[in-house]
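== Sequence entry ==
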Amino acid sequence: MNIKDNPLYKEDIESVLKLNCDFSKLKGKSVLITGATGLIGSYLVDMLVLLSERFCLNLILYLVSRQKGNFTEKNGDVFIHYIKCDFSTDELTGKLPETHDIDFIFHLASTTHPLAYSKQPVETIMINVNGTRELLELCSRNNHCRFILASSVEVYGDDRERLSEGFSETDFGYLDCNTSRSCYSEAKRLCESLCHAYKAEKNCDVVIARIARSFGASLKKDDSKVLSQFLQKGTNGENVVLKSDGSQYFSYAYVSDVATALIFCMLNGHNGEAYNVADRNSNVHLKDLAGIVAERCGVKVVFELPAQEEKEGYSKSVHAILNPNKLNSIGWKARVGIAEGIKRTIEIMRGMRG
């Protein structure tokens, strides 16, 4: 079964209709999304297509990814332009149509899993930083354009103080920049700095979403994130492999909640502000997360030492909880907790395998 035909996936996409937003602000607008075929980007695209069809918005979508070639199609009332671009080596501007007034930019393109951080730290930095710089330049040349950066919980580092409410947007923990593994965390920090620099110097309208560790059935087969590996092994009927003592304590967020948060930030976020995207009901120790997946899949949790290449890509943080109060206070809340999110993910993944 194609993921888009899955009833649970359709429910996930339709959750965007429950947002307290004025969707008429999108009528006739053009939206550019990088990382459009990724875990979050694919959900975001389908939500925007649904909104356009439901409210007759006549959206124009520019979908940028490293996988798909260049072509254009019409999906209902939505014009979709597919653009192939790798920000580590390519420039996007010359690939856009000549008449390309852009109203909203979502920058999601990034390497986002540990094996890539270990094997491709240079590319990890350049995709983030080059892409952000070029897209902010594009934003600065388009009047009334809004730029939404998909940042990460990893900008905070490790919470050695054990803040009772977790990291708020003005807190920061410990981050060792003197390692190759910092390629992702420091790149995201620099991307946030670029956003504020372009706001100050070129009057760009920017909103930053600091996203918790995300998961869902739209994960890629080469995704080496811990939870993605749990899910892939569990749904294959294999034992879930835990390569640590499992004491790490992190915030997680289900992919449909992340996508609705990005749309909410696009329409309701304040210029220059950063917002944590997380769910208070999805703070969990890694060993418990492994147990949830294993129980749902009818397999066991087994322990195994990681290969050195894998280990080098692992986050050095062991405690990183996000406080979502700021985004909650302006009207967004997560809808899917960790147990329900894992249940939905497994059922959708199994449905895709027939």
User: Anything to note?
Assistant: The chain is about 40% helix and 20% strand. The first helix runs from residue 7 to 14. The longest strand covers residues 78-84.
